[in-house]
Design a protein that fits this description.
eight-stranded mixed β-sheet; 8 strands; about 15% strand; globular; hydrolase
C-alpha cells in the first residue's frame, strides 16, 4: 500500500483577487519546475489542508492548492452572516481556477478532485479541456437531484439511522419533511443568530463526517464540531445544493464525452454512503477510456488506505509517463 508523501511546506502562497469582493487563498509546494497539478478540495466549503499536499511526489510535481471561495483561508469567510453568497457559484470557481493558472504561468495542469472536487474538476475540464493534461477523480459527485436526495433527504438514513437522528433532530419538528430538508436547513444555516446557525451547521457537518469512512473515525467527528468551520462548510454546501450546482440536469455526465482525449482515472469506494458508486459508474459509461478503480473495502474519504493507495498510484503513474 502506498502512503502519503512526507510533510512539506509551501514555497509560495498568496491571495488571488478574484473579483466580486473575493480573495482566494492559494499555495504552491513541491518542485517549482515539476509537473503542474491543482488539487480541488471537497464540500464545497471543505478547504485544503497540509495533508492534501502529500498526495503528490514533491520531487516530480509542482503542487497547487486553493481554498475555494468563502472557506479555509479565503475571504470573506462564509461563517459571517453578512457575506453575500451570490458570487459563490460553480462557474465563479471555474473562473478562479483559470485565473490562477494564468497568474502562475502554467500552460496545462493535471486536475485532481474528490467528492465535490470531482464535480468542479469535471466542470473546469469540460469548459477548458485544452488546459487539462490528466484528470484524477475520487468519490464521484455531480449534484444530480438523485444524488442530493439520497444523502440529504432521507434514503441514506436506512444505512446510518444513528447519525441521521442527529441531522434530522436539528430541524424543528414541522420542518422534518422529506424532499424539503435542504431548503428547511437553509432557514437555520442563514439565520443571523449564531446560536441558531452554528447548532444547525454542526449537525449538518456531523452527519456528513460520520459517513465518510467504512470504519468510525472519531477525529472526523471532532473536526465537525468546530463552529466557524462547520458554518462555512454547511452554508456553502447548502447554497450549492439548493441551486443544483448551477448545472442543467445531468450536465456533467452528459458532457463527459468532451473529455475523451484526456487521460483519466476514476477512484471509487464501493461502500461510499455520501456519493454512492452508481454515479462513478455512470461517469465511466460516459468516459469508457478512463481507468475505473472500484474498491471493495472503502467508503468516501480520500485517506482510507485502499483509496489513498489508488490515488497515489495514479499520480505517480502520470508523473512517470511525463
Amino acid at each position: 500500500m502506498r502512503e502519503l508523501y512526507p510533510p512539506i511546506e509551501p514555497h509560495a502562497s498568496g491571495m488571488l483577487e478574484a473579483g466580486d469582493g473575493h480573495s482566494v487563498y492559494w499555495e504552491e509546494c513541491g518542485n517549482p519546475h515539476g509537473k503542474p497539478v491543482v488539487f480541488l478540495h471537497g464540500g464545497p466549503g471543505g478547504g485544503a489542508s497540509a495533508r492534501h499536499r502529500r498526495l503528490f511526489d514533491p520531487s516530480r510535481y509542482r503542487i497547487l492548492l486553493i481554498d475555494q471561495r468563502g472557506c479555509g483561508r479565503s475571504l470573506p469567510h462564509a461563517s459571517d452572516p453578512a457575506v453575500d453568497m451570490s458570487a459563490n457559484t460553480t462557474w465563479h470557481l471555474v473562473a478562479d481556477l483559470e485565473l490562477l493558472r494564468q497568474e502562475r504561468g502554467i500552460g496545462t495542469w493535471q486536475v485532481f478532485g474528490g467528492s465535490w472536487g470531482s464535480a468542479l474538476a469535471l466542470a473546469y475540464a469540460q469548459k477548458h479541456p485544452d488546459r487539462v493534461s490528466e484528470l484524477v477523480l475520487r468519490g464521484i459527485f455531480t449534484l444530480r437531484r438523485s444524488e442530493l436526495e439520497w444523502f440529504y433527504e432521507g434514503p441514506a438514513a436506512n444505512i446510518a439511522p444513528d447519525s441521521w437522528a442527529g441531522f434530522i433532530g436539528a430541524l424543528p419538528e414541522n420542518d422534518r419533511v422529506p424532499g424539503h430538508l435542504i431548503d428547511n436547513y437553509a432557514k437555520l444555516l442563514f439565520d443571523e443568530d449564531p446560536a441558531v446557525h452554528q447548532r444547525a451547521a454542526v449537525a449538518w457537518a456531523t452527519w456528513e463526517f460520520s459517513n465518510l469512512t467504512v470504519q468510525p473515525r472519531p477525529d472526523l467527528i471532532e473536526a465537525a464540531q468546530e463552529p466557524l468551520g462547520a458554518t462555512a462548510f454547511a452554508r456553502i454546501e447548502n447554497h450549492y445544493f439548493r441551486h443544483d450546482g448551477w448545472f442543467t440536469p445531468g450536465q456533467l455526465i452528459a458532457d463527459a464525452p468532451r473529455l475523451a482525449g484526456i487521460p483519466t482515472v476514476i477512484v471509487q469506494g464501493r461502500y461510499d454512503i455520501c456519493t454512492p458508486a452508481t454515479t462513478a459508474w455512470d461517469l465511466h459509461q460516459a468516459l469508457p477510456h478512463a481507468e475505473f478503480v472500484l474498491l471493495e473495502d472503502a467508503g468516501h474519504a480520500y485517506d482510507e488506505p485502499s483509496i489513498l493507495d489508488a490515488l497515489i498510484t495514479a499520480t505517480d503513474t502520470f508523473a512517470e509517463r511525463s
